[in-house]
Amino acid sequence: DKAGYKHFMAKEIAEQPTVLADALRGYLEDDRISLPGEELDFTKVERLTLVACGTAFYACLTAKYWFEQLARMPVEVDVASEFRYREPPITPGTVALFVSQSGETADTLAALRYCRDKADKIVSVVNVAESSIARESDLALPIHAGVEVGVASTKAFTCQLNVLLLLALKAAVDRGHMTQEALSETLSALRALPGILNAAMARSDDIERVARQIAEARDVLFLGRGLMYPLALEGALKLKEISYIHAEAYASGELKHGPIALIDKTVPVVVLAPRDALFDKSVSNMQEVMARGGKVLLITDAAGAAEAGQDVWQTIVLPAVPSVLSPLLYAIPAQLLAYHTAIAKGTDVDQPRNLAKSVTVE
Ligand code: M6R
């Protein structure tokens, strides 16, 4: 049931504020993070290995930044199809964590089985609670996104991010890198996030206008730094998946190591850059793009828009949020941009060609 929306994808994008608020309630007892099922004590964990495919992999990549920054934990991230055949050594003290919406992705399940007798603990972050990946884990953490029908993952991504962030915050507190006071502050920002996501949804018409022009492009680049780098990858995946436009993402600092050769006036460059500690660096990368005739679509907050200069082609302004929460917010315009571009191109948004919702064969 599309509940009045034209596509499941539009419905699932719009549901995010509600499902995130519900999901959060499932993990909080007052201002304490409490995991459903068995407790996970991060003081005993030496290393985390995160494994997934596609969008779930980008959620893992985001989590690496969170675990490293907040909890000072060593984290490895890999795509399941590489991980399983590389057969990496898993040393004692490792928790292996698998992220999957369906819980049935063949490569992710095989990677989990590879870790079975090697890791201290197998944890999964899943949407489908009765899935193989959930069943075969020591601890399965539900993301509470509800059924996701659109092949392009949207609400599952933000709900995966939500659980991964809560885990990183718990690790930070367990390991003495975060005070209860700082945790309470972040949790209240997280509780306020659904309202802020609704404000971002209200940019949908602006995004639709830009999307009509993006739909003319043959190639689109996405750039981001820090937490915005995995999100740039996710934005590019979403766009190529449903609009069939060739899209690539790079860490902004990699631009001058090759991709800048692609820039000309036909290549829109989407820059994801809230006004955070890395913003000045992103601005200088943007200037390099604009100096070569590239058209920059800047997604930022009001402070970022004010500082970005006049030459930016288009700007989408989002509310300002604490840096740590920016991936959850910036996912919304990335999804809406892909959605509206696909609509402008007339592609099948919910059932893109060549793709299946659940990849149960390798
Ligand atoms: O069910 P899973 O989360 O394990 O699926 C992983 C990928 O196949 C999935 O995220 C895919 O990349 C999506 N179609 C992206 O929108």
UniProtKB/TrEMBL annotation:
Task: Name the principal localization, coarsely classed.
Answer: cytoplasm
Can you give the residue ranges of the SIS domain? 38-177, 210-352
Q: Which GO terms describe its cellular component?
A: cytosol
Q: What is its EC number?
A: 2.6.1.16
**Keywords assigned by UniProt, alphabetized:** Aminotransferase, Cytoplasm, Glutamine amidotransferase, Repeat, Transferase
Q: What general EC class does the enzyme of this chain belong to?
A: transferase
* Purpose: Catalyzes the first step in hexosamine metabolism, converting fructose-6P into glucosamine-6P using glutamine as a nitrogen source.
- Protein name, UniProt field: Glutamine--fructose-6-phosphate aminotransferase [isomerizing]
Provide the species name. Puniceibacterium antarcticum
Q: Name the gene for this chain.
A: glmS
Q: Write the span of the intact protein that is present.
A: 244 to 605 of 605
